[in-house]
Amino acid sequence: MAFSMKWRSLALAAAISAVLTPAPAQVFAGAKRVFVIASMEGADGIFNRTSQTVSLTSPRWAESRKLMTDNVNAVVEGLFAGGATDVVVLDAYDTGQAISALDIHPKALLLSGRPVTPTLELNSNYSAVVLAGAPAMAGTEDAVLAATYDFQNIHGIRVNDKPTGAIGARAMLAGTFGVPVAMMFGDQAACNELRELVPAADCAVVKWGIGRGGRSLSHQAACDLIRKTAQRAMGRLSEIKPYQISGPVEVKVEFTTGARTMLFRPQAGVQQVNARTWVFNGKDIVDAWLKFGDF
Asked: What is the pTM of this model?
């Protein structure tokens, strides 16, 4: 999560422009475009940040990239088997350097680098969103690598007083464009989090948290389950409704002690509650959230 004031101003302007600009026409009537938001935390076999998920320095980083990429490619295969006409994959892990164009499924389009536009290039031209490996929010019991966007700097986020992590925020962002989160894969806790918001969504549970570790399906079994679940979700799109909230919206962010909150300034819609907590208000979720940061 970037806290630069310059970036926040540019991000807000770009996002408002994107939201107000009509989505491009679909390529053809009946097209089913799917937007996949990919994270590493939910991939099978990944349980440890130090040894597995710190880019370039973790001793098992190359293995983790392969686990994540194979899981994402299984999603893509299932989506196309279920009738998707186009699939865009956003590498949303860290700075977007986990998935290579060398390894992504040949029929998918890779969106890489962070940050991209503050609303992730998502728009109403998509039929569905898939959360590929999104983690449960920080503090969730039995979650694997739980984090609320930034595990080092953010203690918790509440939207209209409801605890919210990346799963909820991105489901709300998709809902703004009338797009449902149709499916996700990850650990059991993360899938439970999505199901609380989108009960009809399909979930492929590939691992379960136990203490600081957990149990995982084998890599092949996980990929097979993900592929089948994605294909099933495509056949159920009419049953899965977008997660939408009406405005006005309050986003309350509690940062950790070490976070650089001094970069925020009280202004219209932005209020400091205490040394670690800021409140961001807006007419809807996009307006409020972008005063805090990108999605």
From this structure: 0.90
Domain that holds residue 233: 31-151+165-243
Domain count, the chain: 1
* 86 lies in some domain: yes
Q: Please give the backbone phi and psi of residue 189, each rounded to the nearest 5 degrees, phi first.
A: -65, -40
| Confidence at residue 261, expressed as pLDDT on a 0 to 100 scale | 79
Summarised one tens digit per residue, pLDDT across range 7-31 is: 344 344 444 344 433 344 345 678 9
Q: In this structure, what are the phi and psi dihedrals at residue 181, rounded to the nearest 5 degrees?
A: -85, 105
Check residue 217 and give its pLDDT: 98
pLDDT beneath 50: ranges in the chain: 1-26
What integer pLDDT is reported at residue 138 of this predicted model? 96
Who's near 77: CB < 8 A, 6+ residues apart?
105, 227, 230
3-state secondary structure 99-162: CCCCCCCCCCEEECCCCCCCCCCCCCCCCEEEEECCCCCCCCCCCCCCCCCCCCCEEEEEECCE
CATH of the domain at 56: 3.40.50.10780
Question: What is the structure's pLDDT at 28?
Answer: 64
> Percent of the chain beyond pLDDT 90?
82
Kindly state the tokens that stand for 239.
């049953």
Q: Given the structure tokens 């509690």, which residue do they identify?
A: 254
Placement of tokens 């998935």 in the chain: 99
Cα 123 from chain centroid? 15
Domain membership of residue 131 (yes or no) is yes
233 domain residue, yes or no: yes
Give yes or no for a contact between 187 and 208, defined as CB atoms under 8 angstroms apart. Answer: yes
**Is 291 a domain residue?**
no
Going by C-alpha positions, the residue among 159, 130, 160 that lies closest to residue 240 is: 130
